[in-house]
């Protein structure tokens, strides 16, 4: 708990209640030289140059243009993420020149006076006046997200987040550090940024200990101030001395030392670029650069469909969910597995309002699987609330990591701290398990921690995220007018640039494992997406056993309506006869349930005494069904306080079935007395939504007449004008024969 208390500033969720400018609304320094300053946005989309003499000069409005941009001998070097490819470019005197182009590239990276580097699938390239050559060609250097030329060697980060060294043309040495996001040069030293948001300054010989890592982000060397960085100070970020921790500029983000001019930084409250060398009103990035959308390059290795909720706009109107990203992300994870039952509330904002199925669980007391969530937790405005927020956030307002994993475990999931490695994330997602993440998102409110949910990834280290605060790539992050926009957002893993918001730090990953919901077919189990459980979650009990290893049960009620119910929604291959059965587990099944089956001819009620069955399939009958039909069982039985079980349901195709072969709802045909060369046929059932086809064959097996009873009808006469004789009649619905009979026509 002490360790987590020290991390609270990196665990607080969503940002302060006054909703500061989001990353896309920020203006930040991207680089520069003694002549002009490079500007970009908080998502590194777009690039511009500014000086007091020339004013603002747009260079690019493309995604990713502002990340890793720098000036080399008066020429701007940068990257653009286009809809169909990525490219490394230079810009000088209003002219953009393409240097390299590929489906995916990393860089550019400064290489001193010699030129600059970039990486692709072949390795690390050096571009200079004499041309371009591969200087590190090995699997470890392929698509290296970060590199620096230092002390005669190329230092780079490999795809697994490991720092390596390689002499040009030679093989890289073994990894020196793990969990690394970027590497760069700062004042003659090598600065290494970790995945969890710390940094390290290295000199020869390269030796470092755990205690040498410095807490903070955006390290910068400033004349007269020494080494500075950004740290959380109260409810906002501040520029502080790295050693003294003295506050130098309150409310500052992304500082940059502009050569020959002094410090500039992004102001928290306005998102503007500020500093002594700049105009008093600060600078605002010109235009509205785009973000990389799901275009041709987007090719996820894994992407799973996880329900999304907004921590502010899907929670009750009376509650401010600005600090509830941890509870919201955990709620999304459990909802993926169908644990809690929906508890819909009406949310009036944004207008005209909408229903939210899970938001009431965040600030409201509830009971599930024997655990009551009544512990109060601090929320904005000094309001103490129970529910998931109270249990996870307690007295801190932000999420305690250990309470997040405990909450998931009490929901029936397996959860643990899982480190920060990319390989861990991809392994979990490969198994179709979403991953909760304590991250850092840099935005104008400060370097607050933000809990998000990973739901997919690409080989280029683009990650798919359910962000409970909305899509941080877009302006108006967290605002009601952007709702709903947080499902399946595309962000960049720390150190990578694919044109999306870069996650500032991955502080900790948390596993959230359970049996993956299977898509429904003709078998619908309780671990299937076609199994819909409804009613107060306090009434539901889960047990080991039954079909597939688990089942649910509740107490029966003596009076209507149903308090709890389950609907089984199969995926039927087409219209036809189906034998419907339900699996009755060995215990917690003693009531007589009233199953209700929807059929084309109406709802059929089938009572079943579960006490007469034990760990076996109980048949309900054979019925004509069409896709979209479903089975329902509620807890009202007429007799209270009996245990009623809900497990698997099976819809077995029976194309050979004939009328009378099943329980209520089966079809029968009545062939009337032939007269005057015609045969009357009547279906003994409610009108059907599909036609009944009728074929008449003579004694030689030749088709003599045909017709149909149209949808909604029950009677037809067929075979007018047929000569006397013996005829065979077949009546069928699409996909199944109903009747094979013979008739003598006088």
Main attributes?
746 residues; mainly beta; Methylamine Dehydrogenase, Chain H; Cathepsin B, Chain A; 5 domains; 7-stranded mixed sheet; 5-stranded antiparallel sheet; 5 helices; 58 strands; elongated; disordered N terminus
- For the record, the CATH class of the largest domain is Alpha Beta
Q: At CATH's second level, what is the architecture of the largest domain?
A: Alpha-Beta Complex
How much is the average pLDDT? 89
From the spread of the alpha carbons, the general shape counts as elongated
- What portion of residues belong to β-strands? 35-45%
Please name the CATH topology of the largest domain: Cathepsin B, Chain A
Continuous helix count? 5
Computed over alpha carbons, the radius of gyration is 33 Å
Q: Could you list the spans in which at least 5 consecutive residues all have pLDDT below 50?
A: 1-18, 658-667
The structural domain count equals 5
The portion of residues assigned to helices is under 10%
Number of β-strand runs: 58
Structural account:
This protein folds into five domains: 11-209, YVTN repeat-like/Quinoprotein amine dehydrogenase (Methylamine Dehydrogenase, Chain H, 7 Propeller); 216-270, no CATH class; 302-511, Cathepsin B, Chain A, CATH 3.90.70; 523-653, Galactose-binding domain-like (Jelly Rolls, Sandwich); 669-745, Sandwich (Immunoglobulin-like). The protein is mainly beta and 746 residues long. Strand 11 (123-128) and strand 12 (131-136) form a beta hairpin. The model is unreliable at 1-18 and 658-667 (pLDDT under 50). It contains five helices and 58 strands. The strands form 16 sheets. Strands 27, 34, 35, 36, 37, 38 and 39 form a seven-stranded mixed sheet that branches. Strands 41-44-49-46-47 form a five-stranded antiparallel sheet, with no helix packed on it. The protein has a four-stranded antiparallel sheet with strand order 1-2-3-4, with no helix packed on it.
